[in-house]
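FAQ: What does the model actually see?

It sees only this:
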Amino acid sequence: MAKNLTESAHDRQNILNNRYALIKAEEHLQLGGVDFQNERVFTKQQVMALFEVGDATVERYITTYGDELKNNGYTLLKGSTLKDFKIRAHGTLTNEGTKTSILGIFTFRAVLNLGMLLTESEPARIMRSRLLDIVLDVIAERSGGHTKYINQRDENYLPSSFQEENYRKQFTSALSKYVEGNHWKYARFTNLIYQSIFQENATEYKKVLNLATKDKIRETLYSEVLTLIASFESGISHELEKQSIEKGRKLTQKEAENIFISFEQHPLFTPLILDARTKMASRDLCFREALHNKLETYIRSVPESDFERFLGDKSKSLEDQLSDPETLAVFKRLKDR
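And it is asked to produce this:
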């Protein structure tokens, strides 16, 4: 999926929050800069030279995108900090003015941020293209090339999946005992849960993620979504049994459907549904390049913690997790409950 970094704030931030991509970018781009306080920083003059733009252009972007640039490392030096910087940068400050009392500097991250914003710079355009390639390579490398199941690299995935499977059995049992209809009702009411949580039925979801017919949806879901599905299944199972007993008969499918609607509208689930939709829409676009059109308004930039969660040193493939004694011990505890 083509990304226009000059227009999309969350696409820019997804790159800047991915420290693994930044490490690789710093290694490959070789932009120069000055070592200061354990990182590479750049003066405005150095940035102007890198992107072949004038002072007025850089100042215009600082004014227009000040908050974004500051959040990503642009800062003003003054006092003793500026004095220290001048000492360390001696010989490189050719046009900034040695007597200046305030000096703006860009961290490497802020330079990339500015490069993703500049529309009138050919070097910036080339840098954006290289950055996108680096990000794709890093995600593929660290995920083992299997972004379809990147959700499974989360250490919380297996316990959530195991827990949801238990509630799934409880849910299908309740449908069998307390709701009228043939075996098609299981798929129908499962779709109602999906639509309540992420506004897509099974067919729509598979199309977005380009899943094969044999692929199981739940194996691609994030742990938070699985936990919310389990909550729906547990609560709905309880209500189906309760209302069926009260009426002294099986519920009609319409009566059962009303229970689903009430769950979706219950204030208890509102923040949980919002969180699940935001995580699904944002992570899938970032890690899988999959756009959920019905969830587009929920897309946000993916936090740094998520890159650690799915790409970091603690993230593991499902095969590695299943061979981990600690993970197996968690499964045993869950099974014994």
